[in-house]
Amino acid sequence: MHSDIFRITRRPPARRATMFLTLCFLLVLFSACGGSTTTASSGNASSSKTTCNKSSGMTLYSAQGYDSDAAKAFQQQTGITVNLVDDSTGNLLAKIAAEGNNPQWDAVWFDGNVTMQTLDSQGLLLKWNSPNINSYTTLGASNVPTDHAYYPTGITAAGAIVYNTKHIPAAGLPQDWSDLLKPAYKNLMAENDPAFSGPAYPFIAGVSQVLGGEAQGKQFFSGLKANGDKIFQTNDPTLNSVETGAREFAIIQDSAYYAAAKAGQPLGIIYPTSGVAALPSEIGISAHAPHTACAEQFVNWLLSSAGQTVMTHHDPTDGDTYFVEIIQGVTPVVTRQTTGINFVNLNVPLWAGVEAEYKQWFHNNVVQ
Amino acid sequence: MVPQQRRSIAVVEEQEMGAAVHAAAPSSPLFKRSLRLAGQTLIMGIPLIILILLILYPLAAIILQSVFPNLYAVTPNLLPNLSALAQVAANSENYLALFNSLWLSAVTALIACVLGTLLAILVRRTDLPWRGVIDILVWITFFTPSFLVGEAWSLFIIRGGIPDQYLHFSDGFINWFFSPVGVIFVLSLKTFPFVYISVTAALHWLGSEFEDAARLSGARTWRAWISINVPLLLPAIFAAGLIAFAEALSDFGVAATIAQNASITLVTYQIYTAINTSPVNFALAAALSLLLFIAIALALLVQAGVMRTRSFQVISGKNRPARTIALGYWKIPALIFCVVLFVLALAIPLATCLTLSFLHAFTLGFVPSNWTLDNYTSALSLGSDALSALFRTLWLSLGTATITVLVGLPVAFIIRRTQLPGRRLLGLFTLVTIAVPGIILACGYIFAWNAPYLEFLGIGGPQGIQFYGTIWLLFAAYIGGSLPYATRLGIGALEQVGQNMLEAGRVQGAGLFQLLLRIVAPLVRNSLVSIWLLVFTGTMFELAASELLYPPGQPTMPVQIINFFNNFQTGPGMALAMLNIGLVTLGVILLRAVPPLIGRILQLSKRRKTLYVPANQAA
Predict the structure, then answer these.
(1) pTM for this one?
(2) Residue B99: pLDDT above 50?
(3) Least packed by Cβ within 10 Å: which of A83, B477, B514, B606?
(4) Does A256 touch chain B (CB under 8 A)?
């Protein structure tokens, strides 16, 4: 039967027919899958949902610097295996979206309540009550969503103003966002592109919220652009531009500043008085998690002093270590400013709703 | 002098099955014949199945979503929806992006072709000093990850960086570099090794007979090369040039790092923002990827247009040894060309990375307090994790390279030398796979191999065979990702093999298996070795598939390196990258130096019959 596939003579109609057949084959393949998926995960609600099987453990998708330390310590303390997938937030989002209704992850952990809210709105997250919810500080408790679909594990500022202590402009340092529009600061600013940088959109949303809304925010960023604002990809190149003196001010996630200052860079930080967006590191459990019970234990552990201690003891050259603790009774190891910061909690559903539109606007009007 | 016929080989089964042949060989028992048939089915069928399962199916799983957005939705359906396509067509920025991607990639491919061909000829055909070293340097250039090279160059030219502190770059120069010029510059330096590797393999069989004929007719050496030999090398140049084009088309990292503020929109940027930021939009990403199909189809048309004009078969069975050209006074400019090329392609980026790996903070400059070994301590603090990641990456790379070569040659043979229907489409798909950004293909793998319907085939689910989330999926993705390169380069190599050799083989009664194993494989042996090494070193630093598909808890080495960069720990990231580049370099030196040595020892111990291969070309 194979013999008539390989032919000497040219037969154009046959070739076309095969292309058609290939297409048909693909179509049949995909339509076959179309009807079959509904029954897929019915028999899956086995014991692993309610009790944790320590050896099979759980799968954690995470973008946190301290995730590997946390996974190892948890495994050591509880005997529950944690299979870690450590990747950038963007890649994790793509992976979660592609896994769709057959998720292979139990918990996902990254910075940003707006992004986490989008996953929640898509019905991907489990709504559950952690017993450790009472251990939160006031700041922590104010960041827990009402539907309990995800939990903050620490807080950083999405965007603060970082400057080079060796290049302070004649006009002095700006105190608030509106100062940055002054002619004295023309061509001195740098910030991140929300298409690449996770904390950039929460920062943009935060400034907009402080100024009164999306329209005011767009006006501000148009003004900033007109004042010579330069956009870099992520925290690192933006910060580099200030370290090298190419720019005088950078708006970046404050944890990146603390790591750079620790490395010896001559840098200072300003928290604008009208407020900076709180950027919580969030962890959520999959609504269709194969190992829900283990995942819940892991989250509870993170929200305890045992878990927090591991996170704060992470490598001090990694910016992620410099978060504001939001669990009571945890002593930080690395030093960072925790008081005197006017943290603003984002109106998460509002900013999650306009995210795609606002980012596109930003790309077309500020980045380009 | 150059054979003009362009017949394709008739695959042997038909003859075998035909009554005439059957009558001519009445003595062959039935089981022997069926064994042979099974062998032929195997050698054609298995590569095709691998190609379909590892490339076509994952690619289709994501690309089809441009038209069927709910293919893998929570409640899947096959309702066609053209809104994503309409969205792409309605946004005028996308046309601009396609235009930008096209010209940027075309210029990159052109420069890569010129650099690679020139270098290959200099190394293989002239008396240029240090030829062996140059060969190794090309390999290091090839496998050094492009995100490192992009990062290194942008830090090298950056205002206030260490070079700027001493050289004081002008604004004009910095703006000139951080633009498409810089992107083309870095990408050309990254992709010329493909051309070099392809052309050096092709030069192996290009004897001096054509050149001599031209010289006898009064042409000078350079004239003979430009009008005869270089055109004869076109299949190899095109094979690699298309890869360079597709690589540039799919590049995202370099363009984003260097053209950061150049206001130049590329197709990959549009794709990336659709897929890598919340909310993820696969339909849009898939629709945008169709633009890359257009670009690749255009490139293939150009290639077909040029290739149709003549035959490029140079292996005819009576090849003569090639002569070495004495460069004479040209030795100095040739040497300067090589030195400049490698200073730009390798020395500057690697030196920048190496320096970074020994500094606390790049911008503090060369003050004594800034030098440190801490980055290496940090990198090595991964300890056994790093070691197991290294071994995992190593066996995956070895396996991928071996399987890719075994499968790639038959696939190239199918595309180039058979009349199998759909082979052109196959050719198009292999190239599209390179042009589509790695993250798209990796997502295609997730859709394709995590699909709930696979449970009915016994794959996945609580009871089925686990494939998604295991190391085998990553292995499959590596093979799928490497096959297009092997196939394209294999096609270039096959173009050289004379039809008469295959026909002679068939007349002698060789089956397809024997044809491939005994005639084609030995003839393109040099290409196969290069392709093996290319896939091996490429996989050692593969990032896109690794990041998205590595099994939970079992990262590969590139994943560990990029994790440092993701956490903005540039120093330790550079340190780990340097250690790995050092290790792979050592491996390449061993692999390039040891086989010739063994070959020489073997030749001494037993004298082999040299059939049609002149002894002085066999090395």
Answers:
(1) 0.83
(2) yes
(3) B606
(4) yes
